[in-house]
């Protein structure tokens, strides 16, 4: 069935720190083992789902992130209720890319091709103005490379109004599934049912200028060059 | 800055149940108010991020879902550790579609166009075989319409091996941001900086047949017709 479960088995990673909660448990082939895989998954996107505990229940919030390879940065407001209640609370930050549907001969063997990363830790509120500026630059450039040097940077007042959180990448795990369905060598292969993968792709579309934009302001190359290109 | 925070203000919805945790708090314009919006967001995708509590910390797991408009179904294994530890635990299931980057004149006003839904509740493990079959059909047809009648359906043994969870849509909230950046009428409009939206689109790609597929088995229309079409 369609499922991609991080609660799956792999050997402890050589390069990613493995804890009880990042040790995969069931499908050996799907657990990631390298820091390079983690970096590639984080580089390929900009949206994460952040899990925080609020009043004893989990809350899952979509938000953008940026990373420098050691730390992942995100906005504090998304976790504000949790952080106010419990500033030392662990969060789980998950990044997922769906690459396609795995269409098997049997419904039971259906699945999803995907790449995902889960990062656990206690985020740190960035207070130092210089570090905050560097973190916001990292986040902005991760989402839209070239934009930090093009758009107006945060003023001192805006910087003070921005809550930025930093989370270490030390406790992380990755999961990847690729390739065709797994029932091509079983009895279901005789059923005459088509099997394979229906890929799903994310692509940047044509730029839509703000209707309020003054005449004669062209889009900069770092944005125009992205059009029709794949995400990641 | 790039952020889409569910912790934002709107009036209590007329049609979605509003609780302390689904009441948005800050940006009035972004809170959804109708069941139709929720249904549209859930219909437009098939991947959710499920937040469960494990050993006192949140765990955020990507998984597929299906919905009949009243209940959302997902696989039990993704929540297995949590459900074993605490079968009555509340989960948070979040579905997010990113529609584009909102590129403003100032970094501070950057954002994301998106649609998201958050559903809270205590999932119920579906035990009755008939209800389980109906739920799996709902999930399968939600992800890949036409596949339930095409692929081999679950055997009794497979059905028993499949854990299916049902979550009511009663406690839900939606959030949507659309349109251009908001700084077109402020002092930054004089900066001569291009502003607008860089859309992001998800599209189904060309079918990739399983290399193990026997000759002469063509893909069925319900799959072939999806190629090059947008998700949702």
Report on the structure:
By secondary structure, chain A is α+β, with helices and mostly antiparallel strands. Helices cover about 15% and strands about 30% of the residues of chain A. Chain A has five helices and ten strands. In chain A, strands 1, 2, 3, 4, 5, 6, 7, 8 and 9 form a nine-stranded antiparallel β-sheet that branches. Residues about 5-15 and about 25-30 of chain A have low confidence and may be disordered. Chains A and B meet through strand 1, strand 2, strand 4, strand 5 and helix 3 of A and strand 1, strand 2, strand 4, strand 5 and helix 3 of B. Strand 9 of chain A pairs antiparallel with strand 9 of chain B.
Annotation field: number of helices of chain A: 5
Name given to the CATH architecture of chain A: Roll
- Here the CATH topology of chain A equals Pnp Oxidase, Chain A
What is the number of domains of chain A? 1
Pfam families (chains A, B): Pyridox_ox_2
Organism (chains A, B): Streptomyces ehimensis
Protein name (chains A, B): Pyridoxamine 5'-phosphate oxidase family protein
Keywords (chains A, B): Oxidoreductase
Quick overview of this protein structure:
Chain A has 232 residues and is α+β, with helices and mostly antiparallel strands.
Characteristics of this structure?
about 30% strand, Pnp Oxidase, Chain A, 9-stranded antiparallel beta sheet, about 230 residues, alpha+beta, about 15% helix, homodimer, 5 helices
